[in-house]
Amino acid sequence: SLLEMKRGVASLMENVEVSEFVVEATKLLAKARESSIPFVLPANLDMAWLKIASRWNRADQNFVDDDDQCSFLFRLLYAFEFLDSNRTSPFAFDPRSSPLKE
Fold first, then answer.
1. HSE (CB half, 13 Å, CA atoms) of 28?
2. pTM of the model
3. Collapsing DSSP states into helix, strand and coil, what is residue 12?
């Protein structure tokens, strides 16, 4: 059911092991590929963020889908981890140019 799926997504976001898996998988992929091009490009992050932010700006929608939040957070985690392991990549996420604020 839809409610069970929502609970599953929420538990993914709360589970530390899932975040650790994303971090370790990113490190492994970066070493194996030896590429300076990440799987998640800054434009992907911007689009995912805009999908969430646009819903906050609409008066008729006062919620954000958990699936979108989860997807965005894991992409953001990947982007930061890729940046940490590939600092010289011209394609890495630059937090200073992000529309995200505290």
1. 6
2. 0.71
3. helix
